Every structure is written in structure tokens, then in C-alpha cells.
Amino acid sequence: MAIMTSLPIIPKGIQTVDDARLAVKNGVKAIYLSNHGGRQLDTTPSSLEVALEIYNEEPEIFKQVEVYADGGVRYGADVLKLLALGVRAVGMGRPFMYANMYGTEGVERAIEIAKHEIAIDAANLGVGDLKAIGPQYVNWKSTNVWFS
Length: 148
Ligand SMILES: Cc1cc2nc3c(=O)[nH]c(=O)nc-3n(C[C@H](O)[C@H](O)[C@H](O)COP(=O)(O)O)c2cc1C
Known about the structure:
The protein is α/β, with parallel strands linked by helices. The chain has one domain (12-133): Aldolase class I (TIM Barrel, Alpha-Beta Barrel), CATH 3.20.20. Helices cover 43% and strands 10% of the residues. The protein has helices at residues 17-25, 47-57, 61-64, 76-85, 94-99, 103-125, and strands spanning 12-14, 30-33, 66-70, 89-91. Strands 1-2-3-4 form a 4-stranded parallel beta sheet. It is globular. The protein binds flavin mononucleotide. Flavin mononucleotide is lined by residues 12, 34, 36-37, 39, 70-73, 92-94, 97. Its cofactor is FMN. Pfam families: FMN_dh.
């Protein structure tokens, strides 16, 4: 296939570790985990579930390419969990869309709240520099003692 652009191609909507592998094999610079906000098909995995699948089955991918993620991210802790797995950038869609009901001021306020939550949650974890966050900061195993 002829290459039509010199810009980096970043496939968005990666939903499985196999698709992540395939994208890396085809030489992409980055991959974007997303179920498009869960708006296309019910029960598709969240980007956090996909990031966890990659982390468990082929963690090297986080070093081979930059991994971005979005979908259902609402709180600072959601951002930190994705970053802890190795995701480099986290996106939010609808929170800013809804904030835009209040125009620029609303969107600025939404950014302020998100930044504040990320900083507070990182501080509570004892993470002074977001670049130092890693999987050791989250318990990825079930803590449900009632059904084990
Ligand atoms: C109204 C609307 C339209 C969207 N259209 C597209 C689209 O055309 N292509 C696409 O890749 N994602 C589309 N998305 C998904 C967003 O790019 C993004 O992945 C998603 O909103 C992130 O999830 P969140 O809204 O839960 O933060 C759309 C989202 C919304 C809310």
C-alpha cells in the first residue's frame, strides 16, 4: 500500500493486546487505547482493562511505542491508574464537552479540577513526580475475600 503521509500514524481504538502487537509490528509510533467512550458497542473493554491486559501479557509494548488511552476517565485516580501501567497520555472527552455548557470558563474550571485531583491523589500516594509512578502503586489483584 502506498504511504500517503509522512506524519506519524497513531491507530485509535486498540481493544486487545493482539491488536496492540499488530500495530507495533507494522511500525506505528504510538497506539491509542479506546472504546470511543463506550458509545459504539456495549460491553467493549475499557482502556484500563486493555492497558492491564497489555501489562500482563506483553509489557514491553509500553517501551516500544507510546501508549495513549481514553474512555470513562473522570477522576484523578483514573488518570493515575493508567499512568501507573505505563500509559503516557490520558484523554478525556465528555467531561470537557459537558463543561463547555459554561463556555471557556467551564472548560478551564474542568481542567483546574482534573489537575487538582491528579496532584492530590499523587501526593496521597507519595508520588512527587508523575514520571516516577509505576505499577507498584496499585494493587491489580482482586481484594474480594468474600467470593474467593
Ligand atoms: C459526541 C461524541 C462524538 C465522538 N465521535 C468520535 C469519532 O467520530 N471518532 C472517534 O474516534 N471517537 C469519537 N468519539 C470518542 C472520543 O474521541 C473519545 O474517545 C471519548 O469521548 C473518550 O471517552 P469519554 O467521553 O468517556 O472521556 C466521540 C465522542 C463523543 C462524546
